[in-house]
Protein backbone atom coordinates (compact mmCIF):
# COMPACT_ATOMS: atom_id res chain seq x y z
CA UNK A 1 0.00 0.00 0.00
CA UNK A 2 2.60 2.53 1.08
CA UNK A 3 4.53 4.49 -1.52
CA UNK A 4 8.09 3.85 -0.35
CA UNK A 5 9.48 6.82 -2.24
CA UNK A 6 7.47 9.25 -0.22
CA UNK A 7 8.80 10.73 2.97
CA UNK A 8 7.14 12.89 5.56
CA UNK A 9 8.75 16.03 4.16
CA UNK A 10 6.68 16.00 1.00
CA UNK A 11 3.42 14.67 2.38
CA UNK A 12 1.92 18.13 2.29
CA UNK A 13 3.02 18.42 -1.31
CA UNK A 14 1.11 15.23 -2.08
CA UNK A 15 -1.99 16.00 -0.09
CA UNK A 16 -3.65 19.35 0.31
CA UNK A 17 -1.13 21.72 -1.24
CA UNK A 18 -3.20 24.48 0.32
CA UNK A 19 -3.63 25.48 3.95
CA UNK A 20 -7.43 25.33 3.69
CA UNK A 21 -7.34 21.79 2.27
CA UNK A 22 -4.95 20.62 4.98
CA UNK A 23 -7.37 22.10 7.48
CA UNK A 24 -10.33 20.27 5.94
CA UNK A 25 -8.32 17.06 6.10
CA UNK A 26 -7.91 17.30 9.86
CA UNK A 27 -11.04 15.13 9.85
CA UNK A 28 -10.11 11.80 8.31
CA UNK A 29 -12.26 8.93 7.07
CA UNK A 30 -15.37 11.04 6.57
CA UNK A 31 -17.01 8.10 4.85
CA UNK A 32 -16.75 5.88 7.90
CA UNK A 33 -19.27 5.67 10.67
CA UNK A 34 -16.64 7.05 13.03
CA UNK A 35 -14.45 9.60 11.27
CA UNK A 36 -11.05 10.30 12.82
CA UNK A 37 -10.76 13.72 14.43
CA UNK A 38 -7.37 15.40 14.77
CA UNK A 39 -8.66 18.50 16.52
CA UNK A 40 -10.14 17.34 19.80
CA UNK A 41 -9.04 20.28 21.89
CA UNK A 42 -7.95 23.87 21.50
CA UNK A 43 -4.36 22.76 22.10
CA UNK A 44 -4.67 20.44 19.08
CA UNK A 45 -5.67 23.45 16.98
CA UNK A 46 -2.66 25.41 18.23
CA UNK A 47 -0.30 22.48 17.55
CA UNK A 48 -1.68 22.03 14.06
CA UNK A 49 -1.37 25.77 13.36
CA UNK A 50 2.22 25.68 14.53
CA UNK A 51 2.90 22.70 12.27
CA UNK A 52 1.40 24.63 9.35
CA UNK A 53 3.59 27.64 10.20
CA UNK A 54 0.71 30.04 10.67
CA UNK A 55 1.85 30.48 14.27
CA UNK A 56 5.37 30.82 15.60
CA UNK A 57 6.49 28.87 18.68
CA UNK A 58 6.09 32.05 20.67
CA UNK A 59 2.56 32.74 19.32
CA UNK A 60 1.59 29.15 20.10
CA UNK A 61 2.87 29.36 23.67
CA UNK A 62 1.04 32.64 24.30
CA UNK A 63 -2.22 31.19 22.95
CA UNK A 64 -1.84 27.97 24.92
CA UNK A 65 -1.34 29.97 28.14
CA UNK A 66 -4.30 32.21 27.30
CA UNK A 67 -6.45 29.15 26.70
CA UNK A 68 -5.56 27.78 30.13
CA UNK A 69 -6.66 31.03 31.70
CA UNK A 70 -9.86 31.28 29.63
CA UNK A 71 -11.10 27.72 29.05
CA UNK A 72 -14.59 28.70 27.92
CA UNK A 73 -13.14 31.09 25.31
CA UNK A 74 -10.84 28.32 24.11
CA UNK A 75 -13.81 25.99 23.80
CA UNK A 76 -15.61 28.60 21.71
CA UNK A 77 -12.54 28.98 19.47
CA UNK A 78 -12.25 25.25 18.74
CA UNK A 79 -15.95 24.92 18.05
CA UNK A 80 -15.79 27.96 15.75
CA UNK A 81 -12.83 26.32 13.96
CA UNK A 82 -14.78 23.11 13.41
CA UNK A 83 -17.79 25.05 12.13
CA UNK A 84 -15.57 26.85 9.62
CA UNK A 85 -13.92 23.57 8.61
CA UNK A 86 -17.20 21.83 7.90
CA UNK A 87 -18.58 24.78 5.89
CA UNK A 88 -15.41 24.90 3.80
CA UNK A 89 -15.42 21.13 3.33
CA UNK A 90 -19.01 21.26 2.17
CA UNK A 91 -18.24 24.02 -0.37
CA UNK A 92 -15.15 22.37 -1.87
CA UNK A 93 -16.67 18.91 -1.79
CA UNK A 94 -19.66 20.15 -3.77
CA UNK A 95 -17.30 21.75 -6.30
CA UNK A 96 -15.33 18.49 -6.57
CA UNK A 97 -18.48 16.46 -7.06
CA UNK A 98 -20.11 18.94 -9.44
CA UNK A 99 -23.03 19.23 -7.00
CA UNK A 100 -25.11 22.30 -6.20
CA UNK A 101 -23.32 24.74 -3.91
CA UNK A 102 -24.75 24.61 -0.38
CA UNK A 103 -25.90 28.21 0.14
CA UNK A 104 -26.04 27.86 3.92
CA UNK A 105 -22.37 26.90 4.08
CA UNK A 106 -21.37 29.71 1.75
CA UNK A 107 -23.08 32.23 3.98
CA UNK A 108 -21.39 30.73 7.08
CA UNK A 109 -18.06 31.02 5.26
CA UNK A 110 -18.77 34.62 4.25
CA UNK A 111 -19.30 35.56 7.88
CA UNK A 112 -15.78 34.35 8.69
CA UNK A 113 -14.49 36.11 5.58
CA UNK A 114 -15.95 39.47 6.50
CA UNK A 115 -13.97 39.40 9.75
CA UNK A 116 -10.79 38.59 7.84
CA UNK A 117 -11.39 41.38 5.34
CA UNK A 118 -11.97 43.83 8.14
CA UNK A 119 -8.44 43.20 9.42
CA UNK A 120 -6.61 42.61 6.11
CA UNK A 121 -4.39 45.21 4.59
CA UNK A 122 -2.05 45.76 1.67
CA UNK A 123 1.63 46.03 2.50
CA UNK A 124 4.59 46.99 0.36
CA UNK A 125 7.06 44.17 -0.40
CA UNK A 126 10.33 44.00 -2.34
CA UNK A 127 8.48 42.94 -5.49
CA UNK A 128 5.43 45.16 -5.13
CA UNK A 129 2.50 44.68 -2.82
CA UNK A 130 0.82 41.83 -1.04
CA UNK A 131 -2.04 41.09 1.33
CA UNK A 132 -1.37 40.87 5.03
CA UNK A 133 -3.76 39.02 7.29
CA UNK A 134 -4.06 41.35 10.22
CA UNK A 135 -6.05 40.99 13.41
CA UNK A 136 -4.90 40.45 16.95
CA UNK A 137 -2.59 37.43 17.02
CA UNK A 138 -3.23 37.02 20.72
CA UNK A 139 -6.90 36.32 20.10
CA UNK A 140 -7.63 32.65 20.59
CA UNK A 141 -9.25 32.22 17.18
CA UNK A 142 -6.73 34.29 15.19
CA UNK A 143 -5.52 31.24 13.22
CA UNK A 144 -8.92 31.05 11.54
CA UNK A 145 -8.04 34.23 9.61
CA UNK A 146 -5.24 32.81 7.44
CA UNK A 147 -7.23 29.59 6.97
CA UNK A 148 -10.25 31.56 5.77
CA UNK A 149 -8.06 33.67 3.49
CA UNK A 150 -6.56 30.53 1.98
CA UNK A 151 -10.03 29.14 1.25
CA UNK A 152 -11.22 32.42 -0.27
CA UNK A 153 -8.15 32.69 -2.49
CA UNK A 154 -8.54 29.12 -3.70
CA UNK A 155 -12.26 29.55 -4.36
CA UNK A 156 -11.81 32.53 -6.66
CA UNK A 157 -8.78 31.07 -8.46
CA UNK A 158 -8.70 28.85 -11.55
CA UNK A 159 -7.46 26.09 -9.28
CA UNK A 160 -10.84 25.74 -7.56
CA UNK A 161 -11.90 23.31 -10.26
CA UNK A 162 -8.80 21.21 -9.59
CA UNK A 163 -9.96 20.36 -6.08
CA UNK A 164 -10.90 16.71 -5.90
CA UNK A 165 -12.24 14.35 -3.31
CA UNK A 166 -10.37 11.07 -2.83
CA UNK A 167 -12.07 8.22 -4.66
CA UNK A 168 -11.68 6.00 -1.63
CA UNK A 169 -15.22 6.32 -0.30
CA UNK A 170 -14.10 5.95 3.29
CA UNK A 171 -11.28 8.49 2.97
CA UNK A 172 -12.79 11.56 1.28
CA UNK A 173 -9.78 13.74 1.86
CA UNK A 174 -9.66 16.71 -0.49
CA UNK A 175 -6.61 17.42 -2.63
CA UNK A 176 -5.53 19.64 -5.48
CA UNK A 177 -5.05 17.72 -8.70
CA UNK A 178 -2.19 19.39 -10.54
CA UNK A 179 -1.59 16.49 -12.91
CA UNK A 180 -1.47 17.53 -16.56
CA UNK A 181 -4.57 15.61 -17.60
CA UNK A 182 -6.48 15.97 -14.33
CA UNK A 183 -6.48 12.22 -13.86
CA UNK A 184 -5.54 11.87 -10.21
CA UNK A 185 -8.08 9.90 -8.21
CA UNK A 186 -6.50 9.38 -4.81
CA UNK A 187 -5.35 11.75 -2.09
CA UNK A 188 -1.90 10.10 -2.21
CA UNK A 189 -0.24 9.38 -5.53
CA UNK A 190 -1.30 5.75 -5.72
CA UNK A 191 -3.59 5.13 -2.79
CA UNK A 192 -4.28 6.29 0.73
CA UNK A 193 -1.31 4.39 2.14
CA UNK A 194 0.66 7.41 3.24
CA UNK A 195 -2.01 8.70 5.51
CA UNK A 196 -1.09 6.52 8.42
CA UNK A 197 2.33 8.18 8.20
CA UNK A 198 0.79 11.64 8.28
CA UNK A 199 -1.25 10.85 11.36
CA UNK A 200 1.74 9.37 13.16
CA UNK A 201 3.72 12.50 12.28
CA UNK A 202 1.10 14.85 13.71
CA UNK A 203 0.92 12.76 16.88
CA UNK A 204 4.68 12.76 17.30
CA UNK A 205 4.77 16.55 16.95
CA UNK A 206 2.16 16.85 19.65
CA UNK A 207 4.10 14.66 22.06
CA UNK A 208 7.25 16.76 21.55
CA UNK A 209 5.49 19.93 22.67
ZN1 LIG B 1 -7.62 9.09 0.25
Describe the structure.
With 209 residues, this protein is mainly alpha-helical. It has one domain (8-208): Jann2411-like fold, CATH 1.10.3300.10. The chain is built from 8 helices and 6 strands. β1 and β2 (36-37) form a beta hairpin. α3 (42-51) packs antiparallel against α4 (57-69) and α5 runs parallel beside α7 (144-156). It is globular. The two termini are 31 Å apart. Residues 1-14 have low confidence and may be disordered. It binds zinc ion.
What would you say about this model in short?
The protein is mainly alpha-helical and 209 residues long. The protein has helices spanning 11-14, 19-24, 42-51, 57-69, 71-97, 103-119, 144-156, 195-208, and strands at 27-28, 36-37, 121-124, 129-132, 163-165, 174-176.
Question: Which class in CATH terms?
Answer: Mainly Alpha
CATH superfamily: Jann2411-like domain
Stated plainly, the CATH topology is called: Jann2411-like fold
How many structurally independent domains?
1
Report the C-alpha radius of gyration, rounded: 17 Å
Report the portion of residues in β strands.
5-15%
How would you classify the helix and strand content by structural class?
A: mainly alpha
Order of strands, main sheet, comes to 1-2
The overall average pLDDT, rounded, is 86
Q: What's the end-to-end separation, in Å?
A: 31 Å
CATH architecture: Orthogonal Bundle
What's the count of strands? 6
The string of secondary-structure elements, in order, is: HHEEHHHHEEHEEH
DSSP helix fraction: 40-55%
User: How many strands, which pairing sense, and closed or not: the largest β-sheet?
Assistant: 2 strands, antiparallel
Bound molecules: zinc ion
Contiguous uncertain segments of 5+ residues: 1-14
Coarse shape: globular
